[in-house]
Amino acid sequence: MTPAARLQAAIDVLTALETTAAPADRVLREYFRARRYAGSKDRAAVAERVFDCFRHAGSYAWRMNEASPRARVIASLLAEGADPADFFTGASYAPAALTKEEAAALAAPPRDPPLHVEGEFPAFLEPELTKAFGADLFAEMAAMQPRAPVGIRVNTLRTARETLVTALASEGFEATPTPHAATGLRLDGATTSKLSASGLFAAGHFEFQDEAAQICAALCDAKPGMRVLDYAAGAGGKALALAAAMNNKGEIVAHDIEAGRLAMIGPRAERAGVSIIRTTTSLPPVQYDLVLLDAPCSGTGTWRRQPELRVRFTPERLAQLVALQAKLIADASRFVAPGGRLVYATCSVLPCENDEHIAAFLGTHPEFAPVPVSDRETFFHASPRRTQTDGFFTAVLRRST
Ligand SMILES: C[S@@+](CC[C@H](N)C(=O)[O-])C[C@H]1O[C@@H](n2cnc3c(N)ncnc32)[C@H](O)[C@@H]1O
């Protein structure tokens, strides 16, 4: 593909993403499956451009007075010091020549951007993000821009962290132990597709999981022999981490509203050597030592990995999620036995999805009290800037009676 054809491909993919809720990497895969002539360098260049246009969606649209995929791709060229007119020529496979309006926008001097454009976040989130980060807002938003490193969780049922570091090195992967999670490794230069092709992955020596999610699993303090309910287990990322912490002894009930997600747990558990997880979409009224609610959320903590979420998120979706989370906390809490713990977690950095829910829940459920996560913090607040992980929240609550 010519450089100009790659730009047209990026415009096509960004346009397709305007009418689907599918993740950007899946849409990219489908786009190139139908275009076998594109080589790996073409695919990488188009993907890089698409993600860049999501990471900088606000400032690119501001620069061009227009948020269309084409306008954002033009602005992305400008940002890298190229002249868009050299590529937007209308030649075969190249994007159509610049319009008069586009040329005028490019010629105009840059205007001072408003706060949300400078911080590259949706305007409606400004109050929430300001509440979350205060004076650090811009620094926090800047830390959410670069691509995240690959994070893996060492499966201690199969191997030890040091052993896996050595084994990965022999396959050409450089892995560094994570500072906070005892089971974590960080691989700055690797890709998930290369790592998942490794025999070590097939043999269940590791799972893909960011350090923040591993810290959340550690805060659950799951012990061998416990009875555990993972109330929104999805494909089982946390349930598998809990099973390893429990040394595969005890019982984990993995519950979710979506049977399709739960179905992914079986093969993952088998690979990991885990036999204590049972999946279900309906729960009898039985109580557990530990109930984890890893709630559906905005995913604002994962913007580094899924930059398209910045553009796709709406006030209506946030309101729906907040209402659902409040209901799920109350629902999940009924399954906690006296003396047991409820752990609430999200990969969101917004107080309305995190601390505010817990404050409201504690106000109406005096039988629950927080168990501080450290000497400094009652609840765990992670962010790329604070903890060099994804953004994440965890609250641990103990039930007295
Ligand atoms: C953040 S994801 C869970 C991720 C999972 N714990 C992991 O570590 O891989 C949230 C899950 O909540 C589930 N969910 C949404 N509404 C639900 C409900 N009413 N009851 C139970 N689960 C629900 C979704 O299907 C989704 O799998």
From TrEMBL:
Residues 140-400 form the SAM-dependent MTase RsmB/NOP-type domain. S-adenosyl-L-methionine binds at residues 256, 294. The active site is at 347 (nucleophile). Keywords: Methyltransferase, RNA-binding, S-adenosyl-L-methionine, Transferase. One of its GO terms (molecular function) is methyltransferase activity. One of its GO terms (biological process) is methylation. Belongs to the class I-like SAM-binding methyltransferase superfamily. RsmB/NOP family. This is RsmB/NOP family class I SAM-dependent RNA methyltransferase.
